[in-house]
Amino acid sequence: MSLPDPSLREDLVPAWCRPVASRVERAFAADWLLKPLFYWVRRPQVVRPWVGLAYANPDTIADELVDILVTPARDRGAAQAFSYILQAMVNPKFGPRVSRILPDLEIPILLIWGKQDRMVPSSFAKIFAALNPRVQLVELDNVGHCPQDECPQQVNAIIEDWLLYPKGQLPG
Questions:
Q1: Element housing 112 (H / E)
Q2: How much is the pLDDT for 169?
């Protein structure tokens, strides 16, 4: 479901500016700043608009969904986990680039992407799919960043069909 590649942001910053950008990111990822931010961000009235960015259909953003998202944020240690995750993500060595690992995979790959994804733009879907002929891309209309939540029956049917066909290739 959507394939984030945090290393792509590095390509957006000119090489001469990367050391400065990296220092600024690290400064904003400091515990003393992130923990109070976390306590503010985890409130339902703040989470709801963010969920609106992830979901293409506003009707899918029910109180229950917001509750599901904010409840773990109240757990002990959640603020520290949030801090660790953001600190790791601003590290240039966070993870391998998709463009480096995807071409070498020798297994069938199903990539499901919502065409209205505003968090990881759908333009990346075709770029990533072109990196490996084993990738079968399924793009879904009127779906955002969370197809498994927005249209679970459709996603489940796609996955089930993909698993049933030889070599993971859906017909057509």
A1: strand 109-114
A2: 58
Task: For residue 114, report the phi and psi dihedrals to the nearest 5 degrees.
Answer: -80, 130
Structure confidence by residue, pLDDT tens digits, 59-104: 888 999 999 999 999 999 999 998 888 888 777 677 788 888 999 9
What per-residue confidence (pLDDT) applies to 151? Answer: 93
**HSE value, Cβ hemisphere, 13 Å, CA-based, for 66:** 17
Domains of the chain in sequence order: 30-89 (no CATH), 98-168 (3.40.50.11320)
In the three-class reduction of DSSP (H, G, I as helix; E, B as strand; rest coil), residue 23 is classed as: helix
Reading phi first (left if > 0) and then psi (alpha if -120 to 50, else beta), residue 85 is in alpha
CA distance 29 to 152: 34
Q: Which two tokens stand for residue 32?
A: 């003393």
